Amino acid sequence: KANVILCGSTSSTNLPTTPSSDQPVYGGNWDIYVAKFDSGGSHLWSTYYGSNLFEFFPRTAVDGSDNIYVLSEVEDTINTLAVGSCAFQATFGGGNEDLFILKYDSTGKRICDTYLGGSAEDELDWASGGIKCYKGFIYVGANTQGSGYPVTPGAFQGIYGGGTSDITLVKICGSNCGDNSVLNPVFSASD
Questions:
Q1: Residue in 61, 65, 185, 68 with CA at minimum distance from that of residue 133
Q2: Residues 122, 142: contact at Cβ < 8 Å?
Q3: pLDDT digits 0-9 by tens, 117-149
């Protein structure tokens, strides 16, 4: 399926959105913007996602069922984002920034979302960090600047190693883990 997904962060208040989109209006400061076009360039749907704070540096991935995953940084120390019941982390973890994962179906309906972060700053920087779908799993790479990052028992490195920041890797159940609406970490480590 040769669709095109456009995703970025914006401070524009007048980007086109579809009437039935998840968030048809701009939230404030910087929001995530996601749009889908068919192979001929026809606009299929688009939406904002964000609060009156900052959501930025998004990365995207598409799985075999055409679900769209968006990974971004969020400055949301007061939990203003609407997190659904499927979240494995329902609240902001701490520091200045956490990661945030959104899952949309092929029609633009938001299926699930979750925070991902510990007590310190967790981020995507300009050169690293990303999201990839592979064989029904979602892999998230980023970095953390302190302790408290959610890790699974038996992880290669379960605690913050020190220094400026540690790289993090999270493997999340996607479309092959039974309930397609849940984002559950299978593996999480900090190195």
A1: 61
A2: yes
A3: 888 888 886 666 789 998 888 888 888 888 888
Q: Global pTM?
A: 0.88
- 48 close to 82: Cβ distance less than 8 angstroms: no
Question: CA-to-CA distance for 19 and 23, rounded, in angstroms?
Answer: 9
Q: Which residues contact 161 (CB under 8 A, 6 or more apart)?
A: 190, 191
First to last CA, the chain: 37
Amino acid at 71: L
The dihedral formed by the CA atoms of 76, 77, 82 and 88, expressed in degrees to the nearest 10: 100
